[in-house]
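Progress against Task 2.4 (sequence-to-structure conversion) is shown through the following example record, which the project officer requested during the mid-term review.
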Amino acid sequence: MNAVMTVDLSELDAWFAQVQRASDDLTGIARNGGHSLVQTDFGPILETMMGAYHALLPSVHQSLDDNGAGMRDHAEALRATARDFTLTEDGVVRRHNAQGVDGRDGSTSFWDVADTTIRRAAPTETSLPKISFGFPYDTVCDLVRMLTGFDIRAELAEKIGGDVVGASTQGSSFSALGTSLKGVAANLESGSRTISQTWQGGASDAAVKQIGTWVGSLDRQAGQLVQMGQTVVQICRDAWQTAQAVVQCVKSAVQTVSSALATMSIPGVGWARVVQAVWQAFQAVMKAYQAIMKLIGILQKVKSFIESVKSFFDGDKAPVSTPTAPTATGTPSSVTRDPSTITTPTVGQRPVAPTAPSAPAAVGA
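Structure tokens generated for the chain above:
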């Protein structure tokens, strides 16, 4: 039984244009990721996850770059397919000494269904609170260290420094890139459904299957990027809240000891009150210390998650796009319309078909 193939070259031109837009979007996503996802110092409060985070970025950048290059190859393959179909059609016309008519007048069936604009990344947290109480703070620290051996400055104050503003901005960037990537996948999926209505046969089946592979790959990447962004934003929020709790505990300790020091001159009870206040201050400090340790435990889990995301991107390769069109024979006698004349529609609006050229010129050698 002979294989049957049907193709509307106008629709195929429009499908190529949509895939080319997807290529441009993916290239823009990769460019944006290169500028926004950068290795930086988040400070001691997030240092537990920084090594894993820095190791992840090159893998993400490589995957995003590969997406743009691979989709560009796929668009070129579709353009080559449309040209080869035209040449094949011309060869048949010449063999039968007939007259060929280029009936392509543009397509109204293709438009993007999802917005792929990358939202501007913004921080979700403000700067960390500072522990700086001057002389009273140093006095309390010295007393607590003298009676308990625990130094607030070394164990707490130095651990809550950092840049959660920059870190949360990078988290927002991850989410924005993932959302945009998901939009590209949605547009490709919609376009593949549309082209399958007017292009049928072995080449069509292979092309649509390939786009299905692309859609699955981009959706998986988008899910990882969004989840990564949400995780970074959440840990920045946890870090900020931890820092606030530490500051409040230290303030309470300072106030407790400072009040007791004011009564130190009272005979008999002054020093006893100071000792009691220092013990209460130590308990407050230990509460702050436990909050820091809890944050570090969460950071260890975040580190493991980041490592799993890196493993995903290390193993995720962009689908290979190669032309599978039939080989053309003979000299072309018709005109392949310039794809740049195809209307590029906006989201949710059906494009108006472009005016067909009145006097097409012959293709040169």
